[in-house]
Design goal:
CATH topology of the largest domain: Rhomboid-like fold
Helix content: 55-70%
Number of helices: 12
Strand content: under 5%
Shape: globular
Number of domains: 2
CATH architecture of the largest domain: Up-down Bundle
Order of helices and strands: EEHHHHHHHHHHHH
Largest sheet: 2 strands, antiparallel
CATH superfamily of the largest domain: Rhomboid-like
CATH class of the largest domain: Mainly Alpha
């Protein structure tokens, strides 16, 4: 009696509504705007759960795994605040980045290192900031764009760090600074009273955290700076969810980065345990 409802999507080219199964966009003529049904799949994927929650779980799970890989090393603290700190060998097996891996062409460490942490205080601090900033960035940019910003910022921070000669480094702090950079970009583009408030609040947080980094040992301020610039650039490039909803291109890019993250850990583990 009732026909199957017609699904509509936003065309990746013109941003106008069109049929998900259309051979071409009804407005601009783009071929297969629904990407053979993948658009609808990606939309459901990014609506099923918050990337902030998934990233938090991944960071904690990999921290526990880094302790399990070398329990003797984790129980041998090198200082008063380093108890339950993963050993160098464990972090290296899971994909720690630095000038050595960079020189060896181990590109996957740029992604894997985002989710690795060097101690209890390190992961606690980073997880708290991810959970503080993540929901705000998800709301203003969208969940898929949030993951893109988070990943690109972390990679940018480690690229700058490796090029500048930091021997070995791990952590999500570059991505965290990237989220701050994206919020600053939002404030600049949004304008008005709300935009000014966002710019002031998140800009002050970025400056405060960057200054604090110089008073704490072992902090990779170079990665922080690179991550902030990466997030700022990504925030300026990506369309704001407030003005235009996430498109198939956003979902496709986020899905590609998810696959790249999985592949990165696969390569790290295979290189360490099989290579």
């Amino acid at each position: 009696m009732f026909g199957k409802p017609t699904r509509t999507i936003l065309c990746p080219s013109c941003g106008r509504l069109t049929r998900a199964d259309a051979e071409e966009c009804l407005v601009c003529g783009r071929r297969r705007p629904g990407m053979w049904g993948l658009s609808d799949l990606f939309r459901r994927l990014f609506r099923t759960g918050s990337p902030t929650q998934i990233i938090t779980i991944a960071c904690v799970a990999l921290y526990v795994l880094s302790l399990i890989i070398d329990p003797a090393g984790a129980l041998s603290p090198r200082g008063p605040f380093e108890i339950f700190s993963p050993s160098f060998a464990a972090l290296r097996r899971l994909g720690m980045t630095g000038t050595g891996p960079w020189t060896n062409g181990e590109w996957w460490t740029l992604v894997a290192s985002i989710y690795l942490h060097g101690g209890v205080l390190h992961i606690l601090f980073n997880v708290l900031w991810i959970r503080q900033l993540g929901p705000a960035v998800e709301e203003l940019y969208g969940p898929a764009r949030f993951f893109v910003i988070f990943t690109i910022s972390g990679i940018a921070g480690f690229v700058v760090s490796d090029v500048m000669g930091v021997s070995f480094t791990v952590g999500a702090s570059g991505s965290i600074f990237g989220l701050l950079g994206a919020m600053v970009a939002f404030g600049r583009r949004r304008g008005g009273t709300f935009g000014a408030m966002v710019l002031r609040q998140y800009g002050q947080w970025a400056v405060l955290l960057f200054i604090l980094g110089f008073f704490m040992s072992g902090v990779n301020n170079i990665a922080h700076a690179g991550g902030f610039l990466g997030g700022l650039a990504a925030g300026l490039v990506l369309s704001l969810a407030e003005r235009r909803a996430e498109t198939s291109v956003d979902h496709l890019l986020a899905a590609a980065l998810i696959v790249a993250t999985i592949v990165a850990f696969g390569l790290a583990l295979s290189a360490s345990f099989l290579g």
